[in-house]
Predict the structure.
Amino acid sequence: MEGVLHTILAGSNVGILLLATVAFFARFLMGASRSETAVRLDQLAFGAAVVGFFLAIPTILTGLLGTWPLAAIGTTLLAQNKILAATALLAAFGMFSFLRWREGGRIWEVPRLRILAAVLVLTGFINLVLVGSMGGSASLKGTMLDPLFLALGINKFVSLTWGIWVNVALIVLTVIFVAYSMAAPRGQRR
């Protein structure tokens, strides 16, 4: 039963976070526009990212506790990579949601905030694709991305050591940026 619940949650989460990503980048392409469409895209991206973030938590937990034997987590690189990518996905969309909540619509007016938000959403999306693809591999079904991974030389069964340091660096830099942003008086944050 847990496997079925995880599959339902994961499918829903992929759709919601894909919606957040598409809405974000559609809004990103509009620059500093304050049109009604821009405002609605911003609200959609933010709302979907928040819902996706909170839905990712039970999705990860049901995947971790309901589909993997605990022995496999410590010994299988695919399981470890999936947990790593899921954690990075959670961190990236969580940081984007926090940044957007903290700064509001300013993220579209301040280039550094807009770029940081884009990096966070793109990082979350890339990890979303990796997690989904690893899930297909774990269920022995494969994914339509397998030929792309093969062409790029990405092996999901080898430790993602480079990916972890990129994700950790991104998370640390975001925490520093957000902490600085919160410490500076509102008019001086630019």
Notes: Residues 36-66 form the longest helix (31 residues). The mean pLDDT is 82. The CA atoms of residues 109 and 162 lie 33 Å apart.
